[in-house]
Amino acid sequence: MSRLFCNECINKQIEIDRLRKENESLRNENYKLKKRLKEGYFGSSTPSSKKPVKETATLDKAKKGGGAKKGHKGHGRKGFDVKEADEVVDVKGPSTCHKCGRPLQNVGTKFRSVIDIQPVIVKKIAYRLFEKRCGHCKKTITTPAPKVSPKCLYTNRALAYLAEEYYKKNSIDEPKSAKPLSYPP
Question: Are 111 and 145 in contact (CB under 8 A)?
């Protein structure tokens, strides 16, 4: 036996179905946004240090800040000893504070180990970077090593030379050998 529905009931059922679909769509969108917020900008590829909200972070830990304690030696890039350097270059630096313009006083030196390439000659250079302190604002300034990116072992010239040599050898325009590549069994 078939039932007959009035137009009003049919219209209400159509509206209910539409709202259910919209509700489901909004739930999916909400889930995806929450997941992206939790995982970070690059999904599961986001490193834990870059995640905006960490599951294990308490309010105390968030206020404390991260990183190593002051004076910690660290495990960064290993340079070389000054005794191994082919050349030691003194880098004097500015004589006035860039922050307040007052004269700086010498407070010591730091060594920065850098590897530079004079075309085809590798030369180890230890820059003696002079540290100066402003007597007024107590800001300590270390002169940066010339022609070297921060925390980089190789000079800009060495990196450019290596990149140029690499691309010369691997250029698409160079004719390749007619012999096909063979792989070991």
Answer: no
